[in-house]
Amino acid sequence: MQNGIHFISGLPRSGSTLLGALLRQNPRFHAGMTGPLGAMYMALEGAMSRRNETAVFIDETQRRDVLKGLFTNYYATTHAEKLVFDTNRVWCTKLPALLQLFPQARVICCVRDIPWIMDSVERLVRKNAFQLSGMFGFDAGSTVFTRVNRLAGGDGLVGYALDALKEAFFGAEAGRLILLEYEALVRAPAATFEHLYRLLGAPFFQHDFENVEYSADEFDFALGTPGLHTVNRRVEWVDRQTVLPPELFARFEGDMFWRRPGANIRDVPIIQVEYTAG
Q1: Which runs of E-coded beta strand occur in 57-151?
Q2: Range of the domain at 183
Q3: What CATH number does the domain containing 237 carry?
Q4: Tell me: the pLDDT tens digits for 179-221?
Q5: What's the number of domains the chain is made of?
Q6: pTM, rounded to two decimals
């Protein structure tokens, strides 16, 4: 990775796939959907921990070199000469290590109103009415309430990511974060990208927000959730009414912690509609 690496993390259904699809328009960048490096990184951590009795032969320098080598070797043959953006929600929990391995890296955290994240998942489930989703263990007897409860749990798709984001946002390494709100990305993509490029310190590239294409059909079909990583051709905001029962939608309305007055104690830059529209 001759030109370095940044990371994309944050909340699900909040624009990370769209962001990756747009970034990859720049020939100097590589980006995409969630990849395998997060799981591989954690597997290596486990293999080099005291859980493995032979780990006594691995010193701290070797641990660092092995973990850094995972990234450099993975991207060596395909994207060595590009600035890499690697996507995984686990990266928010690995900031102390990642920023020692890559001190210049930034972590772009895609965020969105939590009720609308839940709505987005439920809408996708209903769109694929004849498929059982792997997100819910292919359970044929679930209801919208059990599905949302599973998403919101500490080990659920949304609950885990939200906890990980809080860990990063309030931690000592929060200065390397950039929070990117979904609404800013789709309502004002040009201004959002101008701001993002400034924060990254990268030469600006003119992106085409009218012709964006990305899909991962094979992955999505295997998960029983077609369309999970499909990006619409045009970047635009779509007003809609929620498909969630009112009590479920209201349950998460106060969970956007980064908007609370006084919450941003680390001065994390947040790209919001208020900024992009002004």
Answers
A1: 83-87, 107-111
A2: 5-277
A3: 3.40.50
A4: 999 999 999 999 999 999 999 999 999 999 999 987 777 776 7
A5: 1
A6: 0.92
